[in-house]
Amino acid sequence: AQSVAQPEDQVNVAEGNPLTVKCTYSVSGNPYLFWYVQYPNRGLQFLLKYITGDNLVKGSYGFEAEFNKSQTSFHLKKPSALVSDSALYFCAVWSGGYNKLIFGAGTRLAVHP
Amino acid sequence: GAGVSQSPRYKVAKRGQDVALRCDPISGHVSLFWYQQALGQGPEFLTYFQNEAQLDKSGLPSDRFFAERPEGSVSTLKIQRTQQEDSAVYLCASSLVSSGGVTDTQYFGPGTRLTVL
Fold first, then answer.
1. Minimal CA–CA distance to A70: which of A31, A42, A100, A43?
2. What sign for the dihedral angle of Cα A63, A68, A69, A75?
């Protein structure tokens, strides 16, 4: 079965500290992995994706993610958090056999001043 | 440039009413998707179009849900005889192409928040 797990409902971090939002996946074949961010009353904004190539992917707003095939993980990271990064983050995997994105339940990131 | 737009942004319906939700994808995007996002959850797939062809409607929860994209651009999601459990945010996304096991990035609209009383 194709699935995405985001094990943390919420992540709290102080402004200026590094942040990590975890994601693991299960999918047959080569995974296409995505991170999206959602602000209140807004749609999903694309942050970054892994298709192939370098395991470290850089995206928008200083975010990056590391693809780890052996651990089937795609954790989102940022070296220095901003209060404005506070939002809901979704990891997703493209299920090519089914032509759809499968999303995790989301992780709420709270960055405190 | 213009992104994906959806209308209305908010819709309140009485139980039993029919509703129609509209999605305008990014110009030139071949693939269009509808997702349903319940409160506190991640989006869940409803249906998928490649141009005007509806290639997958496996996520539609019942036969009260119907989607179309007659000219391969604008899409409408229609819900007949709405029920309280239909209350959710309905998200539309488009991509240049998504088929044959590969996909381009899906870009999402702001969503329509449907509340059924």
1. A31
2. negative
Q: Count of domains in chain B?
A: 1
B41/A43 Cβ within 8 A:
no
Residue B4, CA atoms < 13 Å, CB-side half-sphere: 33
Q: Quickly name the fold that domain A3-112 has.
A: Immunoglobulin-like (2.60.40)
Domain boundaries, chain A: 3-112
pLDDT tens digits, B91-100: 999 998 766 6
Which residues from chain A sit within 8 angstroms of residue B108, using beta carbons? 36, 43-46
Judged by CB atoms closer than 8 Å, whether chains meet at B48 and A100 is answered as: yes
The minimal CB distance from A100 to the residues B33, B41, B42 is found for B33
Which segments of A15-96 are extended strands (E)?
Answer: 19-21, 24-26, 32-38, 44-50, 56-58, 64-68, 73-78, 87-95
CATH code (residue B11): 2.60.40.10
In chain B, residues 39-78 whose CB comes closer than 8 Å to chain A? 40-45, 48, 55-56, 58-59
Q: Dump pLDDT digits (tens) for A22-65.
A: 999 998 888 899 999 999 878 899 999 998 888 999 999 999 99
Residues of A in contact with B110 (CB under 8 A): 41-43
